[in-house]
Each structure stands twice: as C-alpha cells, then as structure tokens.
Amino acid sequence: MTAAGLYVHIPFCSSRCSYCDFATGLYQSELAESYVRALIREIRSSNFAGQRVDTIYFGGGTPSLLAAEDVAAIIGAGRDTFKMTPDAEITLEANPETVTSETLRAFRDAGVNRLSFGVQSFRDEELRRLSRLHGVERAKAAYRDARAAGFDNISLDLMMWLPGQQVTDWLESVDEAIALAPDHLSLYMLEVYPNSPLREDMARSAWSQAPDDDVAAMYATSMERLEAAGYQQYEISNVSRPGRMSRHNLKYWTDGEWFGFGCGAHSTIDGVRWKNVSATEEYVARLGANQSPAGDLRRLSRDERLGDALFTALRLTEGADIAGINARYDVDAWSRFGQDLQRFVEFGLLEVTADRWRLTRPGMLLAHEVMTVFV
Ligand code: SF4
Question: CB of 59 closer than 6 A to ligand 1?
Fold first, then answer.
C-alpha cells in the first residue's frame, strides 16, 4: 500500500477576507486551545494507527496563527500514531502578516519543512481590494525571513482575474514572484461568490473582472514566463522547480489516500470517504465527550472511483494513465466516455492516445467543461 497523507484543518483567521468562501471563523485563543487538544485527541485515537504516512498538510483558515508548540504537538501526535517516513513533507499554510523571524524559526524547529504563503498579489491596490491584511513589502519580508529561518521549500499562492486587474497587472505579480525564486507557485483564478462582500464592493466601486480573452492571455503568458524561468507546470494551477511538486496535493490528483483531522476535514481511504462535522464548537464538544467527529462513511461505487480517478488525473499536465486506470477498474474508459469526449478532442482541448489522456493548455482553461463528463 502506498503511503497516505495527513490533512490537519485549522479553522481560524485574523479577519475575514471579502472574497472568502471557506468555513473559517475569527481566532479566539480559548477556542483555539481546546481545538488543538481535540485535534491531538482525534489523531491519537485514529482507527488507522500504524498506517504508513509521508505527508502532513496544515491547511485552513490560517494555520500560521497557531503557536509553534501546538504545531509541534500535533506533528508529534502524528508521528506517535502513524508510521511516518523520515523524509515526510510537512507543509504549513501561512499568511505573511502572521509570521516573524522568530515564529518562522520556531515552526521550522517544530518539524515544518515546507511553507505555503498566501501572497495572492504583489500589488498593494489589489491586496486592499481583497481586504487582505498584508501589503507587498510585508509579503516579501516574510518570504526572506522564511529563507533565513532555513526553509528550502517555499510555495507562494497568487490569484488572477482580480477586480480591476489588467493583463499587465497580473504579469507584474508573476514577475515579482519569479524574482523571489520560490520553489513552487499556485496560480488560482478568483471566483466571486454570490453573497460575498467583494461582490458588493465591486458593484459599489464599479470594479469589473477582465474579459475571457484577457484571462486566457493571463494564464498562458504567466505559464510561459514561469517555464522560461525554470518552473515546470505539473497541474492546472501549479508549477514547481524540478522535484518540488507538492507531494501532499499530488495524493488528491493521483487516486491517493489521506486522513483529514479537524472540523470539516475529509478523509479518503481504500474507496471509503467521510467528512468530519463542520462546526468548530461541535467538533471540540464531540472530542471532549470521546465521540467520533466523523459523519457517515460512504463506500464509493466502482463507477464513482473511476470517475474521480479520471477527473483528478486530468488536472495533471502528464494527464491520465489510461492503460493503468483501465487495468485498475477493469474497464475500457474510452468505450465508456469516448462519445462525450470526442468533441473536446476535435476542438483541441484534449489529446487522446491508447495510453494517456491529456488536457492541452487551452483545455486546462476549460477543464470544468471537460470534467462534467465524469460527474
Ligand atoms: S485568510 Fe484565507 S481562509 Fe482566512 S478569511 Fe482570508 S481567504 Fe479566507
């Protein structure tokens, strides 16, 4: 059995960003303390103790709001409970304004060996529009402090299609990111949700998002610049230096297995999927009463597993290993889906050979359309 990953959800933030659609609340120290205790209890009481694990990912929310000793205690619980490989990748998502040289060194000493900074933009005006708490100089200083603290594996998140953002604005952020030379970058497209405060801000201030052709240019040009700077695109939204792909996130895209801890966290193991209760207080109360926080388990049918395997593998630039998937699920995937996929092949969005299906770069921009075939 290949090694699984551990996902640890931290549902606290310093304030609420205007575009955010994640289930996260404001940081309260008492609740955070009891939440960490609950997390450790959930990890230590896992039914899967002894399973081989090679990644831990602290996601949120804003995991860098935790004290380093709490992060160390959670990692320690993971090591005590699971068979952790010595080279395990341990990632912490961090917001630039929450860290200092000291806290970064403390996270490193706690065992974190990869940081993922939510930078989003290298233009102050755009950061203000998103109501982010950091500015450009703070983000750069946090990055430099992280390098000085010994982090040799750093990822930056950037967001395109921001309100009022032109193609040149976006490329300015991409160039600034390249100049910092991170090991990994995630480039996301902003989605403006129906009742988000950002939508109201956009209406009030007459900010609009760039037309589709400009977004296509943003995506294609940034990927070209990143490739020219030595990065390899390995997934629709992710590029890395050679050997620096996110080992944890690859589990989601390669039919892998993971255990999620914390409120709202999902787990997938051996074709069985479950989700923990979403509300932070309920999660803490359940663990306090020695009850499981897990909702109903669902065993996926073979068809659902096949659809998921194709859906996620097509996110990778190397595409889906169809020969392997056909063998694993005892199907001929083209006979099953070929009729619906043929038009995407004809439009140059999908390349199909006997062994592999792969989205082209234009296809990656329209991945959502292609993926609906498998849902
Ligand atoms: S920091 Fe991230 S999770 Fe927290 S409110 Fe902002 S976007 Fe949402």
Answer: no
